[in-house]
What we know:
The protein is an alpha/beta fold. The protein has a domain at about 5-200: TIM Barrel. The chain has 11 helices and 8 strands. The chain has helices at about 5-10, 25-35, 55-70, 85-95, 120-130, 155-165, 180-190, 210-220, 225-235, 235-255, 270-285; strands at about 10-15, 45, 75-80, 100-105, 135-140, 170-175, 200, 260-265. An 8-stranded parallel barrel has the order 1-2-3-4-5-6-7-8, surrounded by 7 helices. Strand 3, helix 4 (about 85-95) and strand 4 form a beta-alpha-beta unit. Helix 2 packs across helix 3 (about 55-70), helix 5 runs parallel beside helix 6 and helix 9 (about 225-235) runs antiparallel to helix 10 (about 235-255). The longest helix has 21 residues, at about 235-255.
Amino acid sequence: MKISDKLAARQTFSFEIFPPKGDLPLEKAYEVASSLAEHRPDWISVTYSAGGSGNSENTVAIAGDIEGKLDTSALAHLTCMGATAADVDAYVASLAAAGVENILALRGDRRPGRDVVDFAHASDLIAYLRQNHGDLCIGAACYPEGHVESPSEDESYQSLYLKQEAGADYLVSQLFFNNEDFYRFREKCLRHRIKLPIVAGIMPFTSVKQIQRMAFNCGASIPVKVVKRLVQAGDDPEAQAQAGIEYACEQLEDLAANGVDGLHVYSMNKPSIAAAAATAMRACGYIA
Length: 288
């Protein structure tokens, strides 16, 4: 089922899984996906890496299993940096053969040797998919605190508007730790004529090092209340991880109460995180 249809019908709840890159067998990845599916999410997204990491075939395999064996909608990521139109066509064809009709269209990270070929921006990829594979349901990424490469706030919103006009059906946000940032972003989207459904993405922090890395790579700000939670957790890794999961669940509960279009949990291949999030969402009545 298309994710756009689900968003039109109700507030959604979903998870993300990333494919193995060599040390995690596909069978284990399927076990993780099975654990996530037990919570009856509206979809499970499967990340994609190009430019030599070699796991795009795993993306198709896992997404196909989610659709075919777990009876859950799969959202397959697709990055276009370094890709040709023929690459995209072949990937879409492999997804179609696996029964997958939902794609999250992304530019992808800039890396040495991974240069622009046919698509400079995610909006270019979205336009190509809409024109040549019109039956797809196409999602796009958004950034509540602005994209780290955007020179200005206005340009960041202009990029989102271009994704909408190119044919995106909905948006999924990058992680954030302050819900007020998301609410401000949602209001500003309307001012910039962006009217797509916006799914809020939440990633629990599990350690001091991890949250520092996320802040640096994604440009996500770390609120004082998060710092206090980490200080209270001390040097105990388990206490840090528990603090992060509890904080994420509080974020999810607040977002649900404030009428978001959907909630997407970056569960980092950890069923325990998905279970905690699902339990919190059932407790507040967001999901059954």
